[in-house]
């Protein structure tokens, strides 16, 4: 490998974004760029979330600077499956670091072969819908934001909730009233409710048109997830409860939930994503591909998987949609609610 570049960057949201456990104006990411002897480049990015994976931006940066050296790249990039094993071993406790390095390796491989990553994993479709996420706001602001997004062409609206169950029920019912018949609504509580609150919310909303709810209770409350899912009112999808492949095996095979939200930066990269995807698909679970607060770099990798595989719901609405200073251009493009991959991904 000719060169390896690792850098940190602070991204700034277009407007303040609130979920159940935080309200943020900025997000920190780490960029990884590897360049081979022919001058071809592969890029990846890490978006650590301490609440979900226990990583910090500093711990991920430190392990990458220490381990991702020229000596690490002692195999030809053609052996990307061998690199997967090496990455898992070297960055075992750092899933977002694993994701960033594996993205860079696969991007370089695909660059070398003049192909999209979706061609590597299936090429199921050329475009797909993505949902758009609306943070926790008051009812009137939520309605205004939903109307704006509907006019932009989005057909799947995700509402963040989990701070105030009664206020959430009021907001959700208000959105349900204005949602056209050809649109869907998804809820995401980010672990915000107690079991009792979640039961009350699901019972109150069982007659509304809601496709699913993500992570209504704490990540460790697996029995709570199962109890809520058994209510059969609104399908329950695990997010923060599933970080590793082993987490996924337990929840999916144990029938704790109706589906899973799989994120590259949470599970450790494309190849572990595919392991979880295949297991969930084999047991007819709902599959969502999601994202953290991410750059267009990692979102483009996720978009390739969303186009390669018949994933049920796509939630890739960060990058340029979230930030006004994303370091990357090209790659994923979101227009009228659809995702495509167009121009070559480049750093500004």
> What string, H for helix and E for strand, traces the elements in order?
EEEHHHHHEEHEHEHEHEHEHHEHEEEEE
CATH domain class name of the largest domain:
Alpha Beta
Number of strands: 16
Distance between the amino and carboxyl termini: 22 Å
Kindly state the percentage of residues in helix. 25-40%
Corresponding CATH architecture of the largest domain = Alpha-Beta Barrel
What count of helical segments does DSSP give?
13
Structural class of the secondary elements?
alpha/beta
CATH-defined fold name of the largest domain? TIM Barrel
Uncertain runs are none
Features:
Enolase-like, domain 1, globular, three-stranded antiparallel beta sheet, 24% strand, TIM Barrel, 16 strands, 348 residues, 2 domains, alpha/beta
Quick gist of this model?
The chain has 348 residues and is an alpha/beta fold. It has helices at residues 50-53, 57-67, 80-90, 95-112, 117-121, 139-151, 165-178, 195-204, 222-230, 245-253, 264-267, 270-282, 296-308, and strands at 3-19, 22-35, 41-46, 128-129, 132-134, 156-160, 184-188, 212-214, 236-238, 259-263, 286-290, 313-314, 328-329, 332-335, 338-341, 346-347. α3 (80-90) runs antiparallel to α4, α7 packs parallel to α8 and α10 (245-253) runs parallel beside α12.
How would you describe the overall organization of this protein?
By secondary structure, this protein is an alpha/beta fold. The protein folds into 2 domains: 3-114, Enolase-like, domain 1; 118-347, Enolase-like C-terminal domain (TIM Barrel, Alpha-Beta Barrel), CATH 3.20.20.120. The chain is 39% helix and 24% strand. It has helices spanning 50-53, 57-67, 80-90, 95-112, 117-121, 139-151, 165-178, 195-204, 222-230, 245-253, 264-267, 270-282, 296-308, and strands at residues 3-19, 22-35, 41-46, 128-129, 132-134, 156-160, 184-188, 212-214, 236-238, 259-263, 286-290, 313-314, 328-329, 332-335, 338-341, 346-347. An 8-stranded parallel β-sheet has the order 5-6-7-8-9-10-11-12. A 3-stranded antiparallel β-sheet has the order 1-2-3, with helices on both faces. It has a 3-stranded antiparallel β-sheet with strand order 4-15-14. Helix 6 (139-151) links the parallel strand 5 (132-134) and strand 6 (156-160). Helix 6 runs parallel beside helix 7 (165-178). The longest helix is centred in the first third of the chain and has 18 residues, at 95-112. The protein is globular. The protein starts with a strand and ends with a strand.
